[in-house]
Write a structure and sequence with these properties.
Layout: H1 3-30, H2 37-60, H3 64-85
Helix pairs in contact: 1-2, 1-3, 2-3
């Protein structure tokens, strides 16, 4: 397995993670503005999972190692997003339970 065969799926997995979690953010942002939030939440979930699974299937191209590197990229990008944005709510306040004693 060449280095390109490892990096390409890893990067695409990371980009898939960004797309997936942007979709989650968008879904949650729209919940306050729609008339039927439960339908919006379910539709957003099904769309995100379908798109993510399809992208992973295309990245895999029949090789489980490529899928593994894509999943690793997805998880690392998720971790990086959590570290970068972690604990900050939509309104810019710290999330509940993350306050520090001062």
């Amino acid at each position: 397995m060449q280095i390109f065969d490892m990096i390409y799926p890893f990067i695409l997995g990371g980009l898939t993670s960004l797309l997936h979690f942007w979709g989650l953010w968008y879904t949650l942002e729209r919940l306050r503005k729609v008339h039927r939030p439960s339908v919006w939440l379910i539709a957003g979930f099904l769309t995100r999972v379908s798109v993510t699974a399809t992208i992973f299937y295309l990245i895999m191209d029949g090789d489980w190692k490529r899928l593994g590197f894509a999943m690793l990229g997805f998880i690392i990008a998720r971790h990086a997003l959590t570290r970068y944005l972690g604990g900050v709510s939509v309104k810019g306040r710290r999330a509940a339970g993350t306050e520090t004693a001062g």
